[in-house]
Amino acid sequence: MATTPLEKWVEEQAALTKPDNVHWCDGSDEETRKLVETGLKKEKTGKHNTFYQLNPAFSPNSYLHRSHPSDVARTEHLTFINHPSKELAGPNNNWMEPSKAKGVVNKLFDGCMVGRTMYVMPYMMGPADSPYAKPCVQITDSVYVVISMKIMTRMGAFALKRIGSSDSFVKGLHSIGDLDPKKRYIMHFPDERLVMSIGSGYGGNALLGKKCFSLRIASYMGYIEGWLAEHMIVIGVEDPEGDIRYFLGAFPSACGKTNLALLAPTLKGYKVWTLGDDIAWINVGPDGRLYAINPETGFFCVAPGTSEKTNPMMIETLKNNKFYPTLFTNTGLDVRNNTPWWEGFTGEPPAELLDWQGDEYKAGTGKPGEEKPAAHPNSRFTVSIYNCPTLSKEFDNPIGVPISGIIFGGRRQRTVPLVYESFDWAHGVFLASIMGSETTTAATHQVGVVRRDPMAMLPFCGYNMAGYFRHWLNFRSKAKNLPKIFFVNWFRTDEDGNYLWPGFRENCRILKWMVDRIKKSGEAPRGGAGATGGRAAVAAGSGAAGAKETPLGFIPDASDIDLSGGGIDGNKLKDALRINRGEWQKEIEDVEKFYSQFGEALPQELKNHLEKLKKSI
Ligand code: GTP
Ligand code: SPV
Ligand code: MN
């Protein structure tokens, strides 16, 4: 008999979905081991069981998972934010009237777990003893999802204890249903702190603690309660003096967060400490500064392009596996070595290779665009953050780390310079609100088209972005010593489509410039005096931390970037730093279209900034 709100909720979901068994997860190693065994034996998804054991010499306790071929990415068109009013969801979200939405999904959930086990997972987002952490419960019928959630969250009885007899926990109901994309919905009910997801087993659609709660629902909670939930990495950058400054970095999906979060600097004396690679919760700390925690405990990373050369710390993380299993999803399989393989992992594909669907891999059918890659372009691996050799000592710190700089970035072949710095907080918020990026395979849509993606949050902001921008602007009066705001674009190309900047580990040179900019400003309180006051103080002179004032903000000359150690082409760097006025005129037109959707709700301050930019361009 149910006595607590949690027990009552679980009972109701069981009555709806009608599983054969209900299993309450305790989060123990023993339980994990048993669930992996279950996944190795039955529950077929792709061409083999849920899990396929990989070579422990490559990565101990690691498994390949092949998903349904139609279930390989987030499905933004099937994702809904169901506030009571459409206005609150905003033009940036799909919306359904909440009771209508419930009607749609309840029909699909009815009896969907017949013949299956229902797993009830109590977990925390954030360190258990953090004032910012949130207790949650997710229900699922997928073993793959349970194991993934064990890697990605803090699961166990302590979450149950924290919930106790209260009703204040975040609820997630998930079923893979029959994996039919026509019967797939990811429904959010922010008022009820509830997510209902059916028809997909894919990461962001199915691990409801991740994008669904920690960004969509949490961003709305932050709006009401005065904090921020962001699609951001959290890193510490240590300089040769041994000082560590903490940065946040927001990039759209598959645009370089993980690689920046585990960066192994090529510059002597620098070190990057990892705290998070996808989500940050940002609060005003006791001293008035912004502090960030990463609510997750694992990485769910894009596999293609990950190699010893591009991301040695991630390869180390995979080899180092001490905690929980590591899952490889939709990668290829090197048959002789029984190891996962993906494009960019090693130079040549192995001799005997299966593709991500388990078919024999055939290199290029000849016609461009027709060859099937071995790994799905959005193939991923799920691995515990505690394996990471660069994990920051502050990772479990309940109040998080104080933030000195925020980096926003996108994937742009043209238009956007390699790096620039905003004049001040409000100008930074403006520049972040007009960000654009080329779409990637992380979601099912046309790939490679530029779309506006403010703060890299377009698919993740759980309410009207006009209010979200205002919320960001308001931190000017809520917080002290606000971080500097920077923008980067690692993906600019020349006429032939070659990257102008080597990227990856060399990005430390850009981080160094940022650190020097912060040092030079003495991390003094900012804002107040307004753009011009701050500008005169920091823009003077070049050399270390040099920059010139442009319509976009402060941009370094090529000579302001430390190229010591060699190998970097200064001329290409110059091109990467250029502003092309014609391209920016087009860019501004697109921003005007984007802004116009928000009507009167858009803060006037942002419109003013856009007018100013238009004039100066
Ligand atoms: P999500 O997990 O979807 O949020 O993605 P992410 O932002 O963490 O992206 P990730 O770091 O996994 O990178 C995505 C792709 O971009 C990979 O194929 C990388 O190899 C590539 N990439 C990352 N950093 C750079 C860079 O500095 N330069 C270039 N050219 N490519 C990069
Ligand atoms: C992203 O798409 O931004 C990811 C992967 O980080 S997912 O968890 O699916 O959202
Ligand atoms: Mn992401």
Q: Helices and strands in order, then pairings?
A:
Elements: H1 5-17, E1 21-24, H2 29-41, E2 52-53, E3 62-65, E4 79-81, H3 86-89, H4 98-109, E5 117-125, E6 134-140, H5 143-152, E7 154-155, H6 157-163, E8 170-175, E9 185-189, E10 194-198, H7 203-206, H8 209-225, E11 228-230, E12 232-238, E13 244-250, H9 257-261, E14 271-276, E15 280-284, E16 290-293, E17 298-302, H10 312-319, E18 326-329, E19 332-334, E20 339-341, E21 353-354, E22 380-384, E23 401-409, E24 419-421, H11 425-433, E25 436-438, E26 450-452, H12 465-478, E27 484-488, H13 508-520, H14 530-539, E28 548-550, E29 553-555, H15 570-576, H16 581-596, H17 604-616
Parallel strand pairs: 1-5, 3-18, 4-9, 6-8, 8-10, 13-23, 23-27
Antiparallel strand pairs: 2-3, 5-6, 5-7, 9-10, 11-15, 12-13, 12-14, 15-16, 16-23, 17-22, 18-22, 19-20, 19-21, 24-27, 25-26, 28-29
Bound molecules: guanosine-5'-triphosphate (GTP), sulfopyruvate and manganese (II) ion (MN).
The site of sulfopyruvate has 9 residues, from helix 7 and helix 8.
